[in-house]
Please model this.
Amino acid sequence: MNEGDIGIGSVVLSRKGRDKGDYLMVVSKAHGVVFLADGGARKLSAPKRKNVKHVSDSGIKLDAIAAKLKEGQKVFDSELKSALRQLKIGKGDQK
Model:
């Protein structure tokens, strides 16, 4: 996976670890790692640090939330959780 494909607001699928199979959103990134949140188990205030090799890009980007993060506006965990839940329903994934 190319690190350049994933940016803030990208929805990724975890491929390794306890959260394997979960969809999370990239909150920030550094060299070789991304910081992920889902608004539920992983809050925006305490994102999960994960190696970029251990996630798959879904090709979906939450532009509205990404714009808020980049502008420094407050983003609520409930907003993120709701957006990710809608994606799961749209893909037919029942959790």
About this structure: Residues 34 and 50 are 5 Å apart (CA to CA).
